[in-house]
Amino acid sequence: MSYTIVLSLLAAIVVPILLAVLSLFQSPLRKVPSPPNTNLILGHFDAIRKEDTGVTTRAYSQMMPFGIFRTRMFLSWRVWVTDPKALSKILVTSAYDYQKPPSTRDFLTVLLGKGVLVAEGLEHKKQRRALDSAFSLPRIKEITNIFWGPGRNLVKIWEDMAPSTDEAVRIDVMPWLSRTTLDIIGLAGFDHDFDSLHKPEDKLAKAYNSLFNGERVPLSVMILSGLAEYFSPALWIRNQLPFFHHIKKHRMIVEGITQELLDKKRASIHSSDKKDILSILVRDNLGSEDPLTDKEIMDQCLTFLAAGHETTSTALTWTLQRLAENPNIQQKLRQEILQTFPQDRDLTYDELNSLPYLSAVTREVLRLDAPVPVTSRQPVKDDVICGYAIPKGTIVLIPPSVVHYHPDIWGPEADKFKPERFLEVGGVSDVAKGEVNGENERLRRAGPYANLTFLAGPKNCIGHKFALTEMKALLVCIIRNFSFEEDEPGKVIGRRASLVMRPKEGHLYLKMKRIR
Ligand code: HEM
């Protein structure tokens, strides 16, 4: 009897693996160009994992003809797409036929619930419709004033840490920026003051750090996620690992706090004209023919907290590092801010956007250090991309960290930090926006798909205007008050992507000095 059970179990595991091996040999994906690799078991994944985020895949993409290439991860192929026409199909025209893979959606569901980041098809359209007004330009203009409070709190704390204009202090900027953006999303998202800048022991801040600042995703989780493509119980086994229990535990803490916020909001919704995202959502929902359920609203809250917090703080962390590495650019930015607005006061949305160099610096950092370096999709039916047959279920990877560094698109100095490229009339920026015809034919063809920081199409980042405005407001606060130097001049800071692309060592030290 037990012999039969063992045999059945073995068959349940071995047969799908054998079928997977067989399908590799029969797959039409074999025709997609692929860089060489020598690791029989892990395939290209081994090299990709060992290097800093983006380094290996950038090398692969430049080795291959432009537009599409294939790598192997264990027993399955991954197809990387950088061709603008193909990207426009995957992200825009056929966006709902290209879904997030089940293992990603399952992972995000454990982390955030079933908010708009996880939803697909009609469910996604419904959720996105419900959220659109809260993230529209007029709303962002209304909440820009909220960004200054946490910005000024940060400046005050850093002033206390760096009391003199003569002496620099060594500071890990990352946790401070993370707390600042958490406080901002608390106020702008829910009209709630977490004040995590002053309360490092804040329950939510701690739970969040545990969720996002944790260890690298373990190899076992990656292997089981890969295996799940052929053997679906692998997903269940993966979700029993301690890594997932850790996530669930901290998520429950975050969920408890957001439930309190939602209850408070509901209780006062008729008597308030608050402009925060949750108030607008709850208010719009009252008059909607197709309202979101309580659970759906809760899950949106978790999604904003996650999507709107670490992405922006990571982008700001990289901005300060880039400015420390480039003192001339830092000085030019400071000059623009001080000359245009000599008085230190809260700026409006339009005033913030009247600073072209600030805008160029922000865009250049988001190009080179895109917080989401790669995302994935899976076609729900067979398709053809760049002339190659792509069977239903293939994992298609869309890598901003490759596209943004491609010399064919961004020119021979693609890997250089050069905010000026966004200021040249008829230069890369205008061409990428599709506004003028530039000299670089490839860039002109790439148009909006040259810059994928916030992706494109119906599932693009709903918070991109929020994020850009928040980054600019915080940079104005910081750069007019402090200067930054590299901690170890010339040292290359490694990049590591878990959910967002952070410094590999888990911290980012800089030398900071007060300016006045
Ligand atoms: C620099 C900062 C940010 C970056 C680089 C960024 C990037 C992205 C990217 C690449 C996606 C698409 C992911 C995918 O479909 O695979 C996305 C989606 C999303 N982002 Fe952001 N984001 C940022 C800030 C924000 C902020 C501040 C918020 C909210 C306050 C936000 C809310 C969202 C939401 C709700 C989605 C899901 C949209 C949908 O699927 O319809 N993001 N973001």
UniProtKB/TrEMBL annotation:
Keywords: Heme, Iron, Metal-binding. One of its GO terms (molecular function) is iron ion binding. Its cofactor is heme. InterPro entries: Cyt_P450, Cyt_P450_E_grp-IV, Cyt_P450_sf, Cytochrome_P450_monoxygenase. The keyword Nucleotidyltransferase does not apply. Heme binds at residue 461. Gene3D superfamilies: Cytochrome P450. It comes from the Eukaryota. Pfam families: p450. Belongs to the cytochrome P450 family. This is Cytochrome P450.
